[in-house]
Amino acid sequence: MRFLPKIMLIGSLALIAGQAALAFPQHSSEDIDDEANVREDSVVIEGWEFEDFEVKIPRFIKLKSNRIEFNGADWSSLRRRLKQADSLPFSIVHIGDSHLQADISTGYTRQQMQFDYGDAGRGLIVPLKLSRTNEPVDYFFKSDNSWSPLKFMSASWPRTMGFTGASLKPNGNTVTINVGSRVTDTYSTFSDLTIFHKGGIEIESVQLDDGTVINNPVVDYNQSLTRIYLPKATGNASVKFSTDESFSLFGAFLSGNRPGLFYNVIGNNGATYNSYNRIPAMGKGVSELHPDLIIISLGTNEAFGRVDEARMIDSIDRLVKELKRYNPSSQLLLVTPMECQRKGAINTNVKTIANIIRQYGRDHHIAVYDWYTIAGGDGASHKWISDGLYGRDRIHHTVKGYRVQGFMLYDALTHALEN
After folding, report:
1. 266: which strand partners?
2. Are residues 354 and 334 in contact, defined by beta-carbon separation less than 8 angstroms?
3. DSSP secondary-structure letter at 269?
4. I need a surface site. Which of 13, 290, 328, 414 has the fewest CB within 10 A?
């Protein structure tokens, strides 16, 4: 089902029937500020769908400021590329932290942009549940085999971490994965399936949703991905393959082989700029998604440690340069974090981080989406809390809050890409 957004400007937000709450971890007031808890806790969504309720924009959101600051960046080629989306898919890659891992705000942005420009397919999916963390609700990535995952926030990784923030090693040489969409419409189907990995892999068979089994399917293979060509579209697929000892699984990509837009999300609980800087060949991995636009939404987790401006600038610069090195024709968009709280008081470090990101964008002619200001600026967290847009930890949003954020980004992106 595809639909137009329902937007309502109101003074305060009422609860909407049928909305499920975010299930946040239980913290006492004493431990809510513990950095490990703040950064690594999962945001779990239970039983909600995008179509269930309207987006209601509170009056304290700064609608007139909801524009991308280009800082001298030239997006004219990006606009021309978008006009070609009816023949060559347009790809967005959005990188971030726990605000993105659950894919609530970005899921809404994806849905609305695909309504406008065409749905090329679900795009990137990551085996987050197999990695023992929370996963978006609109797809599944399953396996009955035993796997040994790397923990994204570990101080060291004994093997290569994938550009997705996931890396799973099978406990055996023959495995089966089952991937697909939980959304039941014709646009949720896919006819190409790409597996991102490291090491040797040999595809033995693929079973489609109608029971069709393809033995020894046609594939393209290299050391970082295997693309499987399916004879017809399917809503899910079970892939049986054998591997060697060097194999690690990073994720998959579902393509409908049709015009439109991909909106790929790489989100990991606890992530910072430096988290992604640790991943070998991060930029090369992202390049496999052929991004026209790369969005980076980070900074919240940095605000729960000591802020060193010089180190923060260096961290941003390293990730930006890594992404540009392997994606030279892509445009970048930096997103500032919005005000949040710690132990019931405003975390003033967030404003410092937002200022650093804004200034970096100006200095390097990179576009910035100033979510800190648009969300309400100084004191916004109190308003978000009183209107039911922040969860109990006052760091993550409720579903309503994330949908507000998702709509505002959608509105700013479409304005920037069309004007």
Report:
1. 95
2. no
3. T
4. 328
